[in-house]
Amino acid sequence: xxxxxxxxxxxxxxxxEPGDRDLAPQFVLxxxxxxxxxxxxxxxxxxxxxxxxxxxMLGDERSTGDGAWARAMRDWQDARIRKVVRRARxxxxxxxEALPGITVTGKTAEVRVFPPVPLDGWxxxxxxxxxxxxxLHDPEPPADAxxxxxVLWMNPDLDMSAGKAMAQAGHGAQLAWWExxxxxxxxxxxxxxxLAVRTPGPDHWRTLTTSGLPVVxxxxxxxxxxxxxxxxxxxxxxx
Length: 239
Fold this sequence. Notes:
Elements: E1 2-6, E2 27-34, H1 43-59, H2 70-78, E3 82-88, H3 90-97, E4 102-105, E5 110-113, E6 117-118, H4 124-127, E7 151-154, H5 162-179, H6 182-190, E8 196-198, H7 202-209, E9 215-218, E10 229-234
Parallel strand pairs: 2-3, 7-8
Antiparallel strand pairs: 1-3, 1-9, 2-5, 2-6, 4-5, 7-10, 9-10
Helix pairs in contact: 1-5
């Protein structure tokens, strides 16, 4: 599922209006979720694992300074922030694992994140993977979130496929990362990027969207209307 997130911050890669970032070469962060027919992961576990995968990529030493992926990461973050979630199983997953990237595991979910690629420059083993078919479900409602750890709150009024929601959770995690100072980022990384993805009730959601916490607004290319608020990133250090 392809997603381009926006939030109304001047010259931000998440801003809704066209700007200088739209003139830059456009890149995308590929994420592949493993979905085997016999044992698909629960939806919430997949969302949380995708969000952590984005953070792992952002915090990896290869993504900064003179690292092997640093140029691609800079080019990606200088333009619109796009993420695409695709699914793989069996031999497809094994081919994806052979490409440079990082596999992040949740309780049962597995998500592999790759360094950004040009919109029209996907490796063939990723380009052939399907975007649709990521409709996952939770066998039972997730437990209440531990508010002492970061929580990514999903809009309760939006019906998103699992692939769309995974990309949006990744956007939320990235917004929180950008807002943190170096000490908070280091602490989060050393703790293993704990986080939860939950859906609040309508009243709680309205409070969150006016709380001053980072908010993801979708560009509206797929599934939902442009400017829709999809995620509020609630990190304890930002409260």
